[in-house]
Amino acid sequence: MSELRIAAVVGSLRAESYTRPACRHALSAAAEFESVETDLVDLRSLSLPVYDADADDAGDAEVLRNRIRRADSVILGSPVYHGSYSSALKNALDYCGFDELEATTVGLLCVAGGSFPTTTLDHLRSVGRALNAWVLPHQVAIPRARNCFSDGEITDGDVRERVEILGRRAVEYATIEPDPRTIESTQNVGADG
Protein backbone atom coordinates (compact mmCIF):
# COMPACT_ATOMS: atom_id res chain seq x y z
CA MET A 1 0.00 0.00 0.00
CA SER A 2 1.45 3.39 -0.96
CA GLU A 3 1.39 6.23 1.56
CA LEU A 4 -2.09 7.44 2.38
CA ARG A 5 -3.17 10.56 4.22
CA ILE A 6 -6.22 10.41 6.48
CA ALA A 7 -7.60 13.64 7.94
CA ALA A 8 -10.25 14.15 10.59
CA VAL A 9 -12.01 17.49 10.90
CA VAL A 10 -13.04 18.35 14.46
CA GLY A 11 -16.24 20.36 14.04
CA SER A 12 -16.41 21.47 17.65
CA LEU A 13 -14.89 24.62 19.12
CA ARG A 14 -15.36 23.57 22.76
CA ALA A 15 -12.18 23.08 24.76
CA GLU A 16 -13.61 19.96 26.44
CA SER A 17 -15.20 18.60 23.28
CA TYR A 18 -16.03 14.91 22.94
CA THR A 19 -15.69 15.22 19.18
CA ARG A 20 -11.94 15.88 19.40
CA PRO A 21 -10.98 12.68 21.30
CA ALA A 22 -13.34 10.63 19.11
CA CYS A 23 -11.62 11.96 15.96
CA ARG A 24 -8.20 11.37 17.53
CA HIS A 25 -9.16 7.77 18.29
CA ALA A 26 -10.36 7.18 14.71
CA LEU A 27 -7.04 8.54 13.42
CA SER A 28 -5.12 6.30 15.84
CA ALA A 29 -6.88 3.27 14.35
CA ALA A 30 -6.04 4.52 10.85
CA ALA A 31 -2.40 5.02 11.82
CA GLU A 32 -2.08 1.32 12.70
CA PHE A 33 -1.77 0.62 8.96
CA GLU A 34 1.68 0.88 7.38
CA SER A 35 2.37 3.99 5.32
CA VAL A 36 -0.54 6.01 6.70
CA GLU A 37 -0.11 9.63 7.76
CA THR A 38 -2.86 11.28 9.81
CA ASP A 39 -3.89 14.89 10.24
CA LEU A 40 -6.23 16.21 12.95
CA VAL A 41 -7.79 19.35 11.47
CA ASP A 42 -8.99 21.08 14.63
CA LEU A 43 -11.24 23.99 13.69
CA ARG A 44 -10.59 25.49 17.13
CA SER A 45 -7.03 26.22 16.01
CA LEU A 46 -7.96 27.82 12.66
CA SER A 47 -9.23 31.32 11.97
CA LEU A 48 -12.24 30.94 9.68
CA PRO A 49 -14.56 33.95 9.59
CA VAL A 50 -18.17 33.32 8.63
CA TYR A 51 -17.99 32.26 4.99
CA ASP A 52 -18.43 35.04 2.43
CA ALA A 53 -18.21 33.90 -1.21
CA ASP A 54 -16.71 37.30 -2.07
CA ALA A 55 -13.86 36.69 0.39
CA ASP A 56 -13.34 32.94 0.21
CA ASP A 57 -9.62 33.24 1.01
CA ALA A 58 -10.20 34.89 4.40
CA GLY A 59 -8.30 33.82 7.48
CA ASP A 60 -6.93 30.28 7.34
CA ALA A 61 -9.18 29.20 4.46
CA GLU A 62 -6.31 28.20 2.20
CA VAL A 63 -4.63 26.27 5.04
CA LEU A 64 -7.87 24.36 5.59
CA ARG A 65 -8.39 23.67 1.89
CA ASN A 66 -4.81 22.46 1.43
CA ARG A 67 -5.07 20.05 4.35
CA ILE A 68 -8.37 18.64 3.09
CA ARG A 69 -7.19 18.50 -0.53
CA ARG A 70 -4.11 16.48 0.46
CA ALA A 71 -6.18 13.83 2.24
CA ASP A 72 -7.19 10.57 0.61
CA SER A 73 -9.94 10.16 3.23
CA VAL A 74 -11.57 12.76 5.44
CA ILE A 75 -13.51 12.00 8.61
CA LEU A 76 -16.03 14.71 9.47
CA GLY A 77 -16.69 14.90 13.20
CA SER A 78 -19.37 17.07 14.75
CA PRO A 79 -21.33 17.57 17.92
CA VAL A 80 -25.10 17.44 17.47
CA TYR A 81 -26.58 20.93 17.55
CA HIS A 82 -30.37 21.18 17.17
CA GLY A 83 -30.57 17.89 15.29
CA SER A 84 -27.83 18.75 12.81
CA TYR A 85 -24.10 19.43 12.65
CA SER A 86 -22.25 22.39 14.10
CA SER A 87 -22.01 25.81 12.51
CA ALA A 88 -18.21 25.56 12.81
CA LEU A 89 -18.20 22.48 10.58
CA LYS A 90 -20.77 23.99 8.20
CA ASN A 91 -18.59 27.09 7.87
CA ALA A 92 -15.47 24.99 7.19
CA LEU A 93 -17.32 22.93 4.57
CA ASP A 94 -18.50 26.14 2.91
CA TYR A 95 -14.84 27.08 2.39
CA CYS A 96 -14.31 23.70 0.70
CA GLY A 97 -15.85 22.33 -2.47
CA PHE A 98 -15.31 19.91 -5.31
CA ASP A 99 -11.55 20.62 -5.42
CA GLU A 100 -11.23 19.36 -1.87
CA LEU A 101 -13.83 16.60 -1.59
CA GLU A 102 -14.86 15.26 -4.99
CA ALA A 103 -13.96 11.56 -5.32
CA THR A 104 -12.60 11.63 -1.75
CA THR A 105 -13.62 8.99 0.78
CA VAL A 106 -15.51 10.62 3.64
CA GLY A 107 -16.32 9.10 7.02
CA LEU A 108 -18.94 10.49 9.40
CA LEU A 109 -18.89 10.77 13.19
CA CYS A 110 -21.09 12.68 15.60
CA VAL A 111 -21.44 12.99 19.35
CA ALA A 112 -24.57 13.95 21.23
CA GLY A 113 -25.65 14.78 24.73
CA GLY A 114 -28.97 13.09 23.99
CA SER A 115 -29.98 9.82 22.46
CA PHE A 116 -30.97 10.48 18.82
CA PRO A 117 -27.95 11.82 16.91
CA THR A 118 -28.57 10.20 13.53
CA THR A 119 -30.05 13.20 11.70
CA THR A 120 -26.66 14.89 12.01
CA LEU A 121 -25.13 12.01 10.06
CA ASP A 122 -27.90 12.18 7.46
CA HIS A 123 -27.23 15.89 6.93
CA LEU A 124 -23.47 15.34 6.59
CA ARG A 125 -24.07 12.45 4.18
CA SER A 126 -26.16 14.80 2.00
CA VAL A 127 -23.34 17.35 1.94
CA GLY A 128 -20.85 14.64 0.97
CA ARG A 129 -23.10 13.49 -1.87
CA ALA A 130 -23.58 17.08 -3.08
CA LEU A 131 -19.79 17.38 -3.35
CA ASN A 132 -19.52 13.97 -5.03
CA ALA A 133 -17.53 12.46 -2.17
CA TRP A 134 -17.66 8.71 -1.59
CA VAL A 135 -19.27 8.51 1.87
CA LEU A 136 -18.50 5.38 3.85
CA PRO A 137 -21.51 3.21 4.71
CA HIS A 138 -20.15 2.76 8.25
CA GLN A 139 -20.80 5.83 10.38
CA VAL A 140 -20.51 6.52 14.08
CA ALA A 141 -23.12 8.13 16.30
CA ILE A 142 -22.18 8.49 19.96
CA PRO A 143 -25.29 9.21 22.04
CA ARG A 144 -25.06 10.36 25.67
CA ALA A 145 -21.39 11.15 25.04
CA ARG A 146 -20.67 12.23 28.62
CA ASN A 147 -21.15 8.56 29.62
CA CYS A 148 -18.70 7.27 27.01
CA PHE A 149 -15.57 9.31 27.78
CA SER A 150 -13.26 9.87 30.71
CA ASP A 151 -10.15 12.06 30.71
CA GLY A 152 -10.28 12.37 26.92
CA GLU A 153 -10.46 8.61 26.32
CA ILE A 154 -13.34 6.49 25.08
CA THR A 155 -14.41 4.23 27.93
CA ASP A 156 -17.38 2.52 26.30
CA GLY A 157 -16.16 -0.61 24.51
CA ASP A 158 -18.86 -0.64 21.84
CA VAL A 159 -18.27 3.02 20.98
CA ARG A 160 -14.51 2.50 20.91
CA GLU A 161 -14.91 -0.42 18.50
CA ARG A 162 -17.20 1.56 16.16
CA VAL A 163 -14.78 4.52 16.11
CA GLU A 164 -11.84 2.19 15.39
CA ILE A 165 -13.75 0.59 12.52
CA LEU A 166 -14.40 4.05 11.09
CA GLY A 167 -10.67 4.82 11.18
CA ARG A 168 -9.84 1.49 9.53
CA ARG A 169 -12.52 1.92 6.84
CA ALA A 170 -11.14 5.38 6.06
CA VAL A 171 -7.87 3.65 5.14
CA GLU A 172 -9.32 0.55 3.49
CA TYR A 173 -11.56 2.57 1.15
CA ALA A 174 -9.25 5.56 0.61
CA THR A 175 -8.47 4.50 -2.93
CA ILE A 176 -11.87 3.19 -3.98
CA GLU A 177 -12.72 3.97 -7.58
CA PRO A 178 -15.23 6.82 -7.55
CA ASP A 179 -18.75 6.22 -8.78
CA PRO A 180 -20.19 8.36 -11.56
CA ARG A 181 -21.16 11.81 -10.29
CA THR A 182 -24.29 11.87 -8.14
CA ILE A 183 -27.35 13.77 -9.33
CA GLU A 184 -26.92 15.96 -6.24
CA SER A 185 -23.42 16.99 -7.32
CA THR A 186 -24.42 17.71 -10.91
CA GLN A 187 -27.14 20.05 -9.62
CA ASN A 188 -24.87 21.76 -7.06
CA VAL A 189 -24.66 25.11 -8.82
CA GLY A 190 -23.48 26.86 -5.65
CA ALA A 191 -20.12 25.18 -6.01
CA ASP A 192 -19.47 26.96 -9.29
CA GLY A 193 -21.12 30.29 -8.73
From TrEMBL:
SUPFAM superfamilies: Flavoproteins. Its cofactor is [4Fe-4S] cluster. GO terms for cellular component: cytosol. Belongs to the SsuE family. Isf subfamily. This is NAD(P)H-dependent oxidoreductase. InterPro entries: Flavoprotein-like_sf (IPR029039), FMN_Rdtase-like_dom (IPR005025), NAD(P)H-dep_reductase (IPR050712). Pfam families: FMN_red (PF03358). Transmembrane segments: none annotated. Residues 5-145 form the NADPH-dependent FMN reductase-like domain. GO terms for molecular function: FMN binding; oxidoreductase activity. PANTHER family: CHROMATE REDUCTASE (PTHR30543), NAD(P)H-DEPENDENT FMN REDUCTASE LOT6 (PTHR30543:SF21).
